[in-house]
Design brief:
211 residues; alpha+beta; 5 helices; 30% helix
Length: 211
């Protein structure tokens, strides 16, 4: 075989490798999106992104991708609907065998951050006897026309609005998409709940696993 042919073959092989590496992040992300969409109830839209170039070489060598983000829109759980739930996962270990077979299996993570947003409208809908108003650092609940500033409390998987003259007002937080004890921040028109996890969120365990 001549040197020229060998060089041409090497160039073609290099181009093929680059093409596969360029396409791989989107294919992995699409696998995550399809898995969540098909196997998870109450989610309107799923978006995933993989940031781990080179994906194929990294997965074959270490079994990991560096970073995966998954965003869920309008997540409905019983009476409560989240505007968005965003999961930022680091050091994501995936199944090599299933990935080569065209499926994505998330086995473990090193660390993850979950951020969930609840609007004042969604909270008001979940509390039939009250309406909620939210401003930067301020939560106000109106019952029977009278508005009261309340404190935000997060305890034992529940979001509570605490105020002396009011009965207990609380909504449960779903553990499949928020499997942690979050911190809450009151912003304009919404509450942001954030927490750190070290295990794969249950919603992804169910959705992104071998068929």
């Amino acid at each position: 075989m001549s040197t020229r042919i060998v060089l041409v073959l090497l160039v073609l092989l290099g181009a093929l490798v680059v093409a596969v590496e360029v396409a791989a992040p989107r294919l992995v992300a699409r696998g995550i999106e399809d898995g969540v969409d098909e196997r998870t109830r109450g989610v309107t839209t799923v978006r995933a992104r993989v940031d781990s170039f080179p994906v194929v070489a990294r997965v074959l060598g270490t079994g990991q991708v560096r970073h995966v983000s998954v965003e869920l829109d309008r997540v409905a759980r019983q009476e409560l609907t989240f505007a968005t739930i965003r999961m930022e996962l680091e050091g994501v270990r995936v199944g090599r065998r299933t990935l080569l077979g065209g499926e994505v299996e998330i086995q473990s993570i090193e660390r993850g951050r979950i951020a969930a947003e609840l609007t004042a409208e969604a909270l008001s809908a979940a509390l039939p006897v009250a309406s909620v108003e939210l401003g930067p650092g301020v939560a106000r609940v109106a019952v029977g026309g009278a508005g009261v500033d309340v404190a935000l409390e997060l305890q034992e998987g529940r979001l509570r609005f605490a105020a002396g003259p009011l009965p207990e007002l609380a909504v449960p937080l779903p553990v499949d998409v928020l499997p942690c004890e979050p911190e809450g921040e009151v912003l304009e028109g919404r509450i942001l709940l954030t927490c750190t996890v070290h295990d794969v969120p249950p919603v992804l365990v169910r959705a992104v696993s071998p068929s």
